[in-house]
Batch of 2 targets.
Target 1
Amino acid sequence: MSHLTDLIKKEVKDLLREPHILIFAILLPAVMYIVMGVVITGAMESALEQATTTGTKVAVINFDKGIFSILFIKFLEQMPQSNVTILNTTNIHAALKFLEGQNIRTLIIIPKDFSNNISSGTPTYIRSISIIKELSLSSIMGANIISGVIQAFSKTLLTTIVKEFNIQMKPEFIIQPIKSISDVYIRNKFIPSEILSNAFGMIFSIVFVPLIVIGYVASISATSMGIEKEEKTLEVLLTLPVNRIEILISKLTGSFIISLLASVSAGIGFWFYITKIMSVKTKPLISEIAESSITSRGLFEIVSLNELTLIIPALLLTILLVAVIGFIAGALSQNVRSAQSIAGFIWIPLFLVIFPLAYLELASLDLTSKMIIAIIPFSSPIIAIKVMFSNEYYVLMASLLATVAYLVILLFLATKLLSSERLLLGIKWRRKF
Amino acid sequence: MVKDLVKYYGKLKALDSISFTISKGEIFGLIGPNGAGKTTTLRIIATLLKPTSGKVIVAGYDVVKEPDKVRRIISYLPEEAGAYRNLSGQEYLNFMARLYAKSKKDAEEMVEDAIKIAGLGNRIDDKIKTYSKGMKRRLLVARTLMVKPMLAILDEPTAGLDVVHALHVRKIIKEYARKYGVTILASSHNMLEVEYMCDRIALIHKGKIIDEGKPQELKKKYGAQNLEEVFEIAVKRGSA
């Protein structure tokens, strides 16, 4: 035990004097998590603000004209930041077409017998239709806000207004006087909003699982070079009668195949996990939507399988890009330990891009902002999801082209690195302590 | 042919204008202590490092300008070489043979030769990670020689081998060079090994070649009993 302190001191000193450990394991995480926190909080706040604005900016078609529908409209107008437009049309499709051109994303339809039903203590409903251009967290939040408003009116009605009007109430009326029927209008289709949430969950799991796997890709490709160095096989490999590009391609393909296998394995596991969780939660509670719980039905009601395949090139190119970065990190490292510690942090910039974009509604941005987002490395998979709904395929094309350009540049650098002495001698980190 | 080879690592001059020529089928030894510049010289010839200045020509090909062509006719064994630990010895040899062989038959012959050279018996089917250091070295020597290169570059070929296996490897290198006309450039700091194996040697010290010739001629020239004495006297005379 007497030597334990000396041994610990030696261990800490030795590890701290490894510059890559100091930078990548101690300093970088603090900086990266702070940046991630700021970026994601900013994105969430902006999404919430957007959702609140779109959720309270509504148009109303009133088929009722009775006292309670007028009270409901007044209730809407008293909501903070509210902006209520009354439409005189009775044609819902025409109204939706009109609203698509305006900056109003919610249409509320008050049915014909609304006031009569309430007067007789019979449950009634209000239908809301959210116009959604693409799947984003802000659009989902926006769709949910109006349901909350309807529920709030329902409670107010029950606790105060009904007392004054002295209405004889049916038992089910006491439980829920006004039911909120919430639909979304996306790609010229009406979809129950629960299905939209399911589709959102599903489609993001399709992307997030491979993105998690991308973390492994970087590690695998970096480790493969680190092992060559550590096991002293690199020197022989570089003198074999094969050219450097063949070595590079074989390394990348190997990492790519392993990562695809890992994606499939993680995908199967994740799918099983999600379906299990959702089946437990939905069946007993909300029987009417259990059938549309997290199944492919929800997703395929909005997009076709062909459109879903747009994600594939985006994901494959991103995986390849990360594999090349991992390879370069491994090639510049002296051993497996340093290769892995560098590769382990490649996923951070990846998530810094993906998370904020999941909250953002790309379709509402101007062309310049769309293009700037398109050329951000690793943005293609999330852009692929968004353009699937907004049909702005040119943004995805720009993103894919940018990814290909990054790939070409990095592959060129990797080939140069393979022909350089740096590969064998590694980077000499300057020790200043 | 190595001509006026100079190599700097930053400010450190590792090779100071060294020159030597090896004839076809010859076993040439580069002799010197650790840090003398042997490995740097071999790595430049093996196309791994680029010289700061000077020229290296292997069978008419410039190692800097035509490295791909050079790699097709050489086979290099680094001092601290490893092999892919999760492959079996047989799989490793098959993989290497396929890179050099022109046909499947060629590859099979190479592997057969290598198995004989390595002398690993049934252990050839075991994973390399289960091999001892000596077994691994024998496998690597076999891999280097089986392809019958025009030039085999062996950096400390018997490093890590016990006396018996070192003797076996030296014998095989010599036999193989004679039988197939393979030119061999070996580095070593084991003077006994060099005396037994090499037709000609160059003494390298602090990045310079201080003398060159046949072992017997050098012993005679310096009036020495063995090559160790030759080296000692040559270094003293060089620094005097």
Target 2
Amino acid sequence: MSTRMVEVRAKVMKQNDLLARALRERFHNEGTFVVGLVSSPGSGKTAFLEKLLAGLATTYRVAALVGDLATKNDADRLQRATPNVWQITTGTICHLDAQMIETALREWQLDAPDFLFIENVGNLVCPSSYDLGEELRMVLLSATEGEDKPLKYPTIFNSSDVAVITKMDMTQAAEFDVAVARRNIESVRPGMRTFEVSSKTGLGMEAVFEFLKAQIAREARMQPAR
Amino acid sequence: MIDQIADESASRGGLNVEAVLMRLGVFAGVDKAALLFAYGLACEGTPLEGSRLEIETVPLIVFCPVCRQERTPPSLYELCCPKCLTPTAEIVSGRETEVASLEVSE
């Protein structure tokens, strides 16, 4: 018995990638701009998203899909800004995947909003490997976490499109050096657009709104507000 | 991946796969040890049962726009040219998750 080599050279198209591609196409056709939010637990994703939804809801139709292992706490909080909120509870799973999004969309009567935000489970490791069909991935880094998070978790920062430094009202108390944090983000992902915000005071939120509005306009998907 | 290889094998008239040779980038977000561990279990009850998985690690290579050269950055968290230190986000390789070839017996 002899052996021989057979060249294949095929990209392993994971089941998740196929589903994510289908989701992206669907969102695109429906004119929905999808933003994924990733960060470690407690970095302020929900507070930031509350502000985003409230700020954008005056002009756009917005919706949010939130993932956690347990509880509906985040959905309850976000519902103060928009009724279009859906909670995915993953049980023991540390990230969202495209199948979970697809399943949620089958139950959730989502009427083609202008913006859909997907808040991932708080985790800086696993979410980086799962495409959810989003158009833009935002990674959050809070002032209380320390400046070197981007260096410690390069994969998630590199797979994201935009960085947001949150809890800017806490920089002094946490002795957080924004310049160092920015340098570290730049080191992991040169040229990445980085915002500085405080969801508590509203500082810097206007710049994020403007950026998102520009994105949706650029994609020529703007629909009249209801 | 196993389904994909099984399809590939079927399309070539059914191969007796002894080993799967994979190329895995350091920035793929897939862990080599975990993949090796899971492979045997995932192959059970499939045509690939009993086959080996061999993984070639693909290093991170970036393109330096100043030197006009492909370079290996100093680390995964310093995406810049090691010579002129110009930051670059242009990744040439290091994100691969691909099946390169199959070792088949006949």
